[in-house]
Amino acid sequence: MAKKTATSAKPKTYHHGDLRRALLNAALTLVGEQGVQGFTLREAARAADVSHNAPYRHFATRAQLLVALAVEGQQLLLQTLQSSIDGCASRRERLSKLGVAYLQFGCEHAAHFRVMYCNEVAANATEELTTAQSATFNFFEQEIQQGEVEGLFRAGQTGDYALVGWSAIHGATMLVLDGILQGTAVFANYEPADLARLVIESLLDGMIKQKAPAKSKRKD
């Protein structure tokens, strides 16, 4: 009887119904575990349980994979911001809710958030990513613009207010994400959402148009 010969295991091949999604999910997991700089395309392929050549069907470089995650993150962030103010009529409250929603998104989607604002993504930004980033920022800016139209804010400073507000809430989000405030006396009585409200409300106090003092009647 012919002797059976041992057969070597077949190498992993593309077998996912959605390879692109599998690679994105794998990369998010790796970013969460190791940081943005902590993985390669080969590692993403291994985590997605496909061959090391499989990623090249969709992403020629690691940077392309990160940019795709950043685009997805910006779209998710915009949806989160939009949902946060559904049914809210007060302009000030809407802006406060946007600040809280931004910080909470950063905490709840930390891997996406870190990828969205990493140097490698910035250096390899595509038109699709730039469009997604602009849509998110413009949504926030339009809320401030409406506040100006309604006479709530001082006129002619919408762009400056939007930039300052976005910078402040982003900085607060990074402080929370990086654990800089953890264990400090100044943060002892705050939850992340409380910090977001404090930042936005403080900015709004400076932005709101002050009413001119009533003129006193002159007595002769």
Give structural notes.
This protein has 220 residues and is an all-alpha fold. It has two domains: 16-60, Arc Repressor Mutant, subunit A (Orthogonal Bundle), CATH 1.10.10; 66-207, Tetracycline Repressor, domain 2 (Orthogonal Bundle). It has nine helices and no strands. Helix 1 (19-34) packs across helix 2 (41-47) and helix 4 (91-108) packs across helix 5. The longest helix is centred in the N-terminal third of the chain and has 23 residues, at 62-84. The N and C termini lie far apart (128 Å).
What's a quick, concise take on this entry?
The protein has nine helices and no strands.
> How does the major sheet shape up?
none
Structural class: mainly alpha
CATH class of the largest domain: Mainly Alpha
How many strands? 0
Low-confidence stretches: 1-14
Radius of gyration: 24 Å
The structural domain count equals 2
The helix/strand series, from N terminus to C terminus, equals HHHHHHHHH
Give the mean pLDDT: 88
Number of helices, counting only DSSP H or I runs of 4 residues or more = 9
Span between termini: 128 Å
Fraction of helical residues? 55-70%
CATH topology of the largest domain: Tetracycline Repressor, domain 2
Shape: elongated
Which second-level CATH architecture of the largest domain applies? Orthogonal Bundle
Tell me what portion of residues adopts beta-strand conformation.
under 5%
Question: For this structure, what is the CATH homologous superfamily of the largest domain?
Answer: Tetracycline Repressor, domain 2
